[in-house]
Specification:
Layout: H1 2-37, H2 40-52, H3 59-68, H4 72-85, H5 91-97, H6 103-116, H7 122-128, H8 134-147, H9 153-159, H10 167-177, H11 182-186, H12 195-208, H13 214-220, H14 226-239, H15 245-254, H16 258-279, E1 281-285, E2 294-295, E3 305-308, E4 311-314, E5 319-324, E6 329-333, E7 345-353, E8 358-364, E9 369-375, E10 378-384, E11 392-395, E12 405-412, E13 415-420, E14 423-429, E15 442-444, E16 460-469, H17 475-483
Helix pairs in contact: 1-2, 2-4, 3-4, 4-6, 5-6, 6-8, 7-8, 8-10, 9-10, 10-12, 12-14, 13-14, 14-16, 15-16
């Protein structure tokens, strides 16, 4: 009885517990044999199967196939399988396969090294960033980002000296690594005798150098090569430090190369755009056009206006528009990026009023909207929160007719404020924000509809520098705006 029980238990073990293990081993051995003796298709399929099985036992057979099989297809399937298995022992043959004559083998070898993530592969993968095939370079870039080794920074920077290096991919890895020494490694290249190397170094500093790159890039604006100066300009724009605008303007004044001049214009616009974005400035009419009927939104957000009458004159900052009170105004319509419903905002302008009453800038009407205006010679800011609700108006105490004055109206949570020449002169508590977006449009110098506040009167005088911020500026920021000479 005991003997029969032992036999029965053994059979159960073989049929239930042992059989799948034995089957797996037999399948692996069969695929290994096929790798040696099968047709090209059979060998390729065997490599695929071994990778799907994550068969570490098959590493020797797969590494042998990677380096010795005559079929490129079998070699690249072996590389893919080694990547799926992910064993460190495959690193050396995969590095060797990065030199394979077939680009697919090189590509999948780079992929496999990225899956294994061994720092031992860094130098070989960096060299592959100069491979003649783009996909090999791309997978090498990806693998280096997967490995994320600080040891790759120095060889990556050194690679920029080679003309066949894929500079954008090299820089992409450097950006990804965010190594604190990247700038230090790049700086010597700015003095390289080859202008191509200096240009690549400038490009890299713009992408991966950070704030420490600003001063070296500013010095590069004096480089004798237009190509290097252009890359330095674009790099400074990418770094985005506000202090570079002045040097760029000075370079533009003396620069003779047209390509560099265009780059400077692009850079200055990008710096301004970033500054506007930082400030929350979503619409800005400077009135610096000087002629015509189109009033441009300097943020390039598409909030351009149309001038009906009026006269272009010198203003507080550059150009401005003078309104004579004869149906003259700027029609902005429904500005694309101006939102006042259920949120804070700031509206401001420079004005030189020549009459006791007139609308500086208005958006919306009696149901909801705001108006920045002059009434009885006093500066005022009023909002209509919703239909049938009383208007909320705040007023200055001193008349401003006959002089330049900076006006700013602010809606913040629970409060509406008026600033005159950068100082808070009036405020009022409110139960909430304006409840919706206006149905009526925006005008400067007149109110075409029914007023959100007290008046629709035409403005007589000069208006300049109208700005709308999609946030409530702080008192300090408004004071700064009132003292600015323009962006």
């Amino acid at each position: 009885m005991g003997f029969r029980l032992v036999l029965l238990l053994g059979a159960v073990w073989l049929g239930v517990g042992g059989w799948p293990i034995s089957s797996m081993e037999r399948a692996i051995r069969e695929h290994e044999r096929t790798l040696l003796t099968g047709t090209e298709l059979e060998r390729a399929n065997a490599a695929i199967a071994l990778g799907e099985l994550r068969a570490k036992e098959a590493l020797p057979a797969l590494m042998d196939a990677l380096l010795k099989d005559k079929s490129p297809r079998v070699r690249w399937e072996a590389a893919k399988a080694l990547g799926l298995i992910g064993d460190e022992r495959a690193v050396a043959p995969l590095i060797e396969a990065l030199e394979d004559e077939n680009p697919n083998v090189r590509m999948y070898s780079a992929y496999a090294l990225g899956e294994i993530k061994s720092p031992r592969a860094v130098e070989a993968l960096v060299r592959s960033l100069a491979d003649r095939e783009w996909l090999v370079r791309w997978f090498s870039c990806w693998a280096l980002m997967e490995i994320r080794s600080p040891d790759s920074v120095k060889p990556l920077v050194s690679l920029l000296k080679r003309k066949e290096a894929d500079t954008p991919l090299v820089v992409r890895v450097l950006e990804w690594l965010k190594h604190p020494k990247t700038t230090d490694f790049l700086l010597p290249l700015l003095k390289h005798r080859d202008e191509e190397v200096r240009a690549r170094a400038a490009f890299a500093l713009g992408r991966a150098g950070g704030p420490r790159a600003v001063e070296p890039l500013l010095q590069l604006l004096n480089d004798g090569s237009p190509k290097v100066r252009r890359e330095a300009v674009l790099a400074l724009a990418r770094v985005g430090d506000r202090k570079v605008a002045g040097p760029l303007e000075r370079l533009k004044a003396k620069e003779e190369d047209e390509g560099v001049r265009r780059a400077i214009e692009e850079a200055i616009f990008e710096l301004i755009r970033r500054e506007f974005e930082r400030l929350g400035l979503v619409a800005y009419w400077s009135f610096d056009e000087g002629r015509g009927n189109i009033v441009l939104d300097r943020t390039r957000n598409g909030n351009d206006g149309w001038l009906e009458g009026g006269m272009w004159v010198r203003g507080k900052v550059g150009g401005a528009i003078e309104f004579g009170g004869k149906g003259e105004f700027v029609d902005v319509g429904k500005p694309k990026t101006v939102r006042i419903g259920r949120r804070p905002f700031t509206i401001m302008a420079w004005a030189l009023p020549k009459a006791e009453e007139g609308v500086v800038v208005v958006y919306g009407g009696a149901w909801c909207g705001f108006s920045l205006y002059i009434k009885d010679g006093l500066p005022k800011f009023g909002i209509s929160r919703k239909k049938d609700a009383p208007d909320d108006v705040v007023s200055g105490r001193e008349k401003v007719v006959g002089r330049w004055v900076h006006l700013a109206g602010v809606v913040r949570e629970g409060k509406v404020e008026l600033y005159v020449d950068g100082k808070l002169v009036a405020q009022k508590s409110i139960p909430g924000f304006i409840t919706s977006e206006p149905g009526q449009g925006m005008q400067i110098g007149f109110d075409l509809g029914d007023s959100p506040a007290e008046t629709t009167a035409q403005f007589i005088g000069v208006i300049d520098e109208v700005k709308f911020f999609q946030r409530a500026l702080s008192p300090e920021e408004i004071a700064q705006e009132a003292g600015l000479k323009g962006p």
